[in-house]
């Protein structure tokens, strides 16, 4: 089951593990600890490495996370981290303005006291609960709180390692230039998820066959929802009527492969759900 992970180069494995925990020392050492016989062996190695790291390495991992409740922080992260953080902080989507404001204040107070962001395994927690946990931890001594935050990071790492090993939804495209009767190579393509609000998931450029093999970045979790795929047609041919083509579609079953081709001509285009 872990053959693909064990077969990655050291650099590739380290990059994957960095999406699960932002400590470079952790990711490097976990990559070097391969091969893993099964998920339990991977989890045990991750725990042992995390426990052996210095506080500076823990702080590096903490800093890789967006602040709880801060959409601006989430938007600044990589595509994979952004997608995972949005899912983990889904409880904030229903937060009232009052709770969101109080949490922002609690975040600031926490950082002033402890010198790092408020870190909590937010999966499955409501906005009110996330606020209450933050306020309750403000009374901890700094050395105690560092250990508490490290344990929360350990929980997050476990969840993300599981996501890393879970098959991802695959979204692909193929652009055909019907006027020229050939694949459209070199078309820049961007994928966004539109709910709860627009967020870029991935981007790429069509290859010589006009294909983009995947638009979901490695390590990003599968998720149902409404998506928009945008083709920068003008970058391919600026003589056409449509400089940009945007197609919105709904992913209801994230386990399925979603292929969204574009048949392009100077004065028109068409699309369909492919396979």
CATH secondary-structure class of the largest domain = Mainly Alpha
CATH homologous superfamily title of the largest domain: Oxo-4-hydroxy-4-carboxy-5-ureidoimidazoline decarboxylase
Helix content: 40-55%
CATH architecture of the largest domain: Orthogonal Bundle
Low-confidence stretches: none
Strand tally: 10
Largest sheet: 6 strands, mixed
CATH topology of the largest domain: UraD-like
How many domains would you count in the coordinates?
2
**Cα Rg:** 21 Å
- What is the terminal separation in angstroms? 26 Å
Written overview of the protein:
This protein is α+β, with helices and mostly antiparallel strands. The chain has two domains: 162 residues, Oxo-4-hydroxy-4-carboxy-5-ureidoimidazoline decarboxylase (UraD-like); 102 residues, Transthyretin/hydroxyisourate hydrolase domain (Immunoglobulin-like, Sandwich). The chain contains eleven helices and ten strands. Strands 1, 2, 5, 8, 9 and 10 form a six-stranded mixed beta sheet that branches. A hairpin with a 4-residue loop joins β1 and β2. The mean pLDDT is 88.
List keywords for this structure.
275 residues, Immunoglobulin-like, UraD-like, 11 helices, six-stranded mixed sheet, 43% helix, globular, alpha+beta
Task: Note the topology.
Elements: H1 3-7, H2 10-18, H3 24-32, H4 39-52, H5 55-63, H6 71-75, H7 79-88, H8 97-114, H9 127-137, H10 142-164, E1 170-177, E2 182-183, E3 188-193, E4 199-205, E5 211-212, E6 225-231, H11 233-236, E7 245-251, E8 257-259, E9 262-265, E10 268-271
Parallel strand pairs: 1-8, 1-9
Antiparallel strand pairs: 1-2, 1-5, 3-4, 3-6, 6-7, 9-10
Helix pairs in contact: 2-3, 4-10, 5-10, 8-9
